[in-house]
């Protein structure tokens, strides 16, 4: 573990603005680690290729339990801002999918023609069992962006 994934999220058609919380759900399987930190970094990629990190979020996988009633969710029950109380520790089970809803600090940015979002994800093992382990980020992982179209 300890690798980094960066994935472009595409450019909107025309100018668009983003204001509010970014919802990130990672679905991960590890082969050995019982705990790890997930670090997520939404960035803006300009037309000339320069990159500016907009915000970030961090969650220790064993602290992933969220109180749905206190979390901010969409009308489809997708968690945008999870309420992690950090009062209990739930180890990751090797070989089983682990769902992480990660709180990301809010953004306020305008994307113009040729600009796009990039999402960087790093996983770092924090226990002795995880050294040399591998992780799979599943396709069911998702990012919710607070977009509104400019006129």
Descriptive keywords:
151 residues; mainly beta; five-stranded antiparallel β-sheet; globular
Question: How many H/I helical runs?
Answer: 0
State the helicity in percent bands: under 10%
Distance between the termini: 44 Å
Largest sheet: 5 strands, antiparallel
Reading the helices and strands in chain order gives EEEEEEEEEEEE
**Rounded radius of gyration (Å):** 16 Å
Shape: globular
- The secondary-structure class comes to mainly beta
Overall strand count: 12
pLDDT averaged residue by residue = 85
Strand content: over 45%
Could you list the spans in which at least 5 consecutive residues all have pLDDT below 50?
A: 1-5
Q: How does this model look, in words?
A:
- It is a single chain.
- This protein has 151 residues and is mostly beta strands.
- 0% of the residues lie in helices and 50% in strands.
- The strands form 3 sheets. Strands 1, 3, 4, 5 and 9 form a 5-stranded antiparallel β-sheet that branches. Strands 2, 8, 10, 11 and 12 form a 5-stranded antiparallel β-sheet that branches.
- Residues 1-5 have low confidence and may be disordered.
Write the layout of secondary structure elements.
Blueprint: E1 4-8, E2 16-30, E3 36-45, E4 51-53, E5 57-60, E6 72-73, E7 79-81, E8 98-111, E9 116-125, E10 135-137, E11 142-144, E12 147-149
